[in-house]
Amino acid sequence: MKRLGDVVASVLFVLLFGTAVLFLVIPLAVSVVMSFDAREYIGPFPPPSLSLHWYEALWENTAYLDGLWVSLQIGLLATGVSVVAGGMAAVFLDRFRFPGRDALETLFLSPKFVPTVVVGFSILALCATLGVRDGWWRLLFGHIIITLPFTLRATLAALVGIRRSLVEAAMILGASEFRAYLDVVMPLARTGILSGALFAFVLSFDEVAVSLFLSDPFTTTLPVALVAEMRANLNLTIAAVSALFVGLTAVAILVLDRLVGLDRVIGYGIYRS
């Protein structure tokens, strides 16, 4: 009876897992196929004939290209700042115990739990008060705010399993505390740091609500440009953009796996001695 129960549980797990995979993959597959639709309008699936028409329209659309460039700039800079600031905050919170520490950690993590519409409007109001009217700087500030909790949380999780005795041993051998953290702790915590950086960049690149509040007519991110295009002229260039990013994501995963190994980037979890 126990053996039969294990078999039934395994079958149910496989079915559930397969359903989840199909639920995620089928919309992506439909978008990729529709991006090659030769029709000038969005018609029933599958398309009767295939063409690169929508990809040509994509490369001729300056709004998309400008939005892509802004998204890459903001995403990379926000990720870099968030990794450094989140890493320093994580080390501070991990190293010291003091009254109000939990409240300070909650404050750092609060942008994860506040609706992004509220975050976007609040940052817009703050920038207006400070006189910051340049959309690029507003976007950078806003994206740092929303990505910082992810780098902080991921780095904190990695630091949990690193023994304090390793730092003390390095200090006994002559290293300063800063050097011990830099040469001993940070390499051991690299899994959490890299994971936080990946999450931060993806979140920044994909963010819509905050970017809608903080962009201006001259500086918009790619998601905002896509939303504007959907409102003004809904067509399959959006499917072409989706297909390109599916392909780029697959290539990035393959390159990471070949050069570094996905298990080394995101698979080891918390360090354990």
UniProtKB/TrEMBL annotation:
Its main location: membrane. It is a multi-pass membrane protein. The chain crosses the membrane at residues 7-30, 68-93, 113-133, 139-162, 193-214, 234-256. The keyword Cell inner membrane applies. The keyword Transmembrane applies. Residues 68-257 form the ABC transmembrane type-1 domain. Gene3D superfamilies: MetI-like. It is found in: Cell inner membrane; Cell membrane. SUPFAM superfamilies: MetI-like. Keywords: Cell inner membrane, Cell membrane, Membrane, Transmembrane, Transmembrane helix, Transport. Belongs to the binding-protein-dependent transport system permease family. This is ABC transporter permease.
